[in-house]
Specification:
The complex is a heterodimer of chains A (306) and B (393). Chain A is mainly alpha-helical and 306 residues long. Chain A is built from 12 helices and no strands. Helix content of chain A is 75%, strand content 0%. The chains are: A mainly alpha (306), B alpha+beta (393).
């Protein structure tokens, strides 16, 4: 276990380092500096700005300085909002995004797995058809379409739920549903196919033959084994929910990280784009590591020395 | 020998008959032998959903290619006086041959009975204090009273004009957007852009991914390990983030999207190809090819890759809806093609602000995206079952 963890942590550090380098190089390869605007800034002011943000240093020196600052967990100032740092943007936005994201993950798992099991147990009967139809819809409809359709029907036509903001618990319903659409469908399909496979195994027949109640066969022997692929998908799922939340936060005007990110893209706020990208990447790599560890704990068959 | 002779003499004569042809050819294999692709096509044809998907894809491609020819409008044609018209018009009868339609924003149009828009009427008299506008429709007075909802259309004597019918907008079948551009033709042009991006990005990914995965799998050992670590590192972070970063650097437009998609999304293909090559290269025919001195490159391109074609094609068809989705996503967050060009994503994004008043502007591009995603997904699922029956679940 220790060796596995060490290996994974090293790989993680390399990944994050490469992401930082890549972002740095990409952002510095853009023609024109961050202060290049349609309206020409007087050269003296531009020089002063460049000096203030150390943009007149050589590229390697800037790179090393940037790495040093990141090592101190400082992602630098925003070039578009006065007095705003990227750290502060993250601190402001992340709790909202995290709340939205965790609700979505919970909903996805709490609905996706039971639906998948139901669908597998009633294979080729009407519950299966209904669930699979909805799951196919969920996979093919992009989140932003789903979100706008929800807004149109539930908020504008029926007036049941708010169109934007998170003032009450009602505000969460539509964003969470729209965000969960894809992952929920995917998990349902995954659980179904894996459950179908597991239920044909010999040990299920053995369990039935020795007279175990069907409930135990399904949940203890069937579900426990078929849940493994679902655990593997949780890592990519968090990534999907995270990128999905860019548009969802934009549509519902939620004050989260995703909206800051999209705004920084439209404003060409390069330091913010860099900072948030690095933050996202690091966060995801961490989540994937955690998922891997959970996977090890859930499945005793996995060999650790690999 | 003697024994045998005596035996055959014992068999009664009537059993010695000549067999006819049907009996003789019983063992012959009569069914034509099918190649791998013929066989797959046969299996694909049996899959109804996949065939529906395939037909929709073909229809979409035809519409994207030839649709604009049949449209009287260009995607950039603006007509500000015809802006934000809905696809369904409520028309009122003024006289036997003149009908009017009241659009949002107190705009009164003269239309035909079938729903063709003739002109935007200009007011002869405006009384903004009493909230009344007077129009002259072919010699008849129309008084628009907008003091209370619903607005009233009155004639000179104060009687309401009768509601005639709700008809399809014949001038703009899908309605028009906020600049008076035809949404139908813009959705068709959007199909061109979305399909073009999907196609080019998929082809680029195909070449890079197949070569990368092929070389890694065939070379094996340290090189394989190194190349696959790179793939691992790239795919730890969601590919969308890289694409967004690249798009920020390259600027928005058609070419940057293709470059950004093409330079990142090959990692999935590389993994699949490598896995296939790893198992295929242990086959005897590779050994045979090696033993007669075939060059490595030739073994890879002529022997190994054609045999891995099934999974490669499947992952290509899965790539197409993904590329369409990514393009729509990028356009939606403002990194897509720039105006007046439009892709489905930008159309949806533009319509978002006016969702409350003009849902039709969002409905058609969104429907187009969904139908396309459905079609490609079903086709992809069907192809997977047909080309690689082992993967069937």
């Amino acid at each position: 276990m220790g060796k596995f963890l060490l290996k994974r942590v090293i790989a993680m550090v390399i990944t994050i380092f490469l992401v930082i380098t890549l972002t740095f190089l990409l952002m510095h390869s853009i023609p024109g500096g961050p202060f290049t605007k349609e309206k020409k800034v007087p050269p003296a002011i531009e020089e002063a700005l460049n000096k203030k943000y150390n943009l007149d240093d050589s590229l390697p020196k800037q790179y090393i300085d940037y790495l040093k600052r990141i090592a101190k967990l400082d992602l630098g100032p925003s070039f578009q909002y006065e007095g705003m740092t990227v750290n502060k943007l993250i601190k402001d936005g992340f709790p909202t995004s995290a709340k939205l994201g965790s609700f979505t993950v919970l909903l996805t798992l709490a609905l996706g797995i039971p639906f998948g099991v139901l669908s597998a147990l009633k294979q080729n009967k009407w519950p299966d058809y209904i669930v699979m139809f909805l799951a196919t819809l969920g996979i093919t409809i992009p989140a932003f379409v789903l979100a706008t359709v929800f807004i149109y029907f539930f908020a504008l036509k029926l007036g049941l739920l708010p169109t934007f903001g998170l003032d009450s618990w009602k505000g969460y319903i539509l964003p969470v549903l729209a965000l969960a659409g894809y992952s929920l469908s995917f998990i349902t399909r995954l659980t179904r196919s894996s459950m179908l496979e597991v239920m044909q195994q010999d040990y299920i027949r053995t369990a039935r033959a020795k007279g175990l109640p069907e409930r135990v066969v399904i949940f203890k022997h069937g579900l426990r084994n078929s849940i493994l692929p679902v655990v593997t998908y949780v890592g990519p799922m968090i990534a999907a929910i995270l990128t999905g939340s860019f548009v969802i936060e934009k549509i519902f005007a939620l004050p989260g990280m995703g909206r800051h990110f999209v705004q920084s893209i439209t404003n060409r706020d390069y330091t913010t784009i860099m900072g948030i990208t690095i933050f996202f990447a690091t966060f995801l790599v961490f989540m994937v590591l955690i998922v891997d560890i959970v996977y090890l704990l859930v499945d005793p068959r996995i060999k650790l020395d690999d | 020998m003697e024994n045998l002779n005596s035996n055959s003499k014992n068999i009664p004569k009537e059993l010695w008959t000549k067999i006819d042809d049907t009996e003789k050819n019983k063992e012959q294999i009569s069914r034509k032998s099918l190649t791998y692709f013929q066989d797959s096509w046969r299996r694909l044809k049996e899959n109804k959903m996949a065939m529906i998907g395939l037909s929709v894809v073909i229809i979409l491609i035809l519409i994207a290619l030839f649709g604009p020819m049949f449209s009287p409008y260009e995607y950039s044609d603006q007509n500000l006086s015809y802006s934000s018209l809905t696809p369904r018009l409520d028309i009122y009868k003024v006289s036997d041959d003149s009908y009017i339609h009241l659009a949002n924003g107190l705009r009164l149009y003269r239309v035909t009975e079938s729903g063709k828009i003739i002109e935007l009427l200009s007011a002869t008299e405006q009384n903004l204090i009493e909230k009344k506008i007077t129009y002259d429709v072919k010699g008849k007075t129309v008084l628009l009273d907008f003091e209370n909802q619903p607005f009233k259309l009155l004639d000179g004597n104060g009687n309401e004009y009768s509601y005639h019918d709700r008809v399809w907008n014949k001038t703009y079948l899908f309605g028009s957007d906020d600049l008076g551009r035809d949404i139908l033709v813009r959705v068709i042009y959007g199909a061109r852009i979305s399909l073009l991006i999907a196609f080019v990005a998929t082809v680029v990914n195909f070449f890079i991914g197949v070569l990368y995965g092929g070389i890694a799998g065939y070379a094996g050992g340290k090189l394989d390990n190194f190349m696959m670590r790179i793939v691992d590192i790239i795919s730890t972070v969601p590919l969308m983030l890289y694409v967004i970063l690249l798009m920020v650097v390259l600027g928005s437009g058609l070419k940057p999207i293709i470059i950004a998609l093409g330079s990142i999304y090959w990692v999935g293909m590389a993994r699949i190809v490598r896995g296939q090559i790893l198992s295929l290269k242990e086959q005897e025919y590779v050994l045979a090819a090696k033993s007669i001195g075939t060059r490595h490159w030739r073994i890879l391109t002529r022997h190994l890759l054609p045999n891995a074609m099934g999974p490669i094609i499947v992952s290509m068809t899965m790539m197409i809806p993904r590329a369409i989705f990514v393009e729509a996503f990028l356009s939606f967050i403002g990194l897509g093609v720039s105006a007046p060009k439009a892709s489905w994503g930008t159309l949806a994004n533009d319509a978002l602000g006016a969702l409350r008043s003009y849902p039709h502007q969002l409905f058609f591009p969104a429907l187009a995206i969904c139908v396309t995603m459905f079609a490609f997904n079903f086709l992809g699922d069907g192809l997977r079952d047909a080309l690689d029956p082992r993967l069937r679940k």
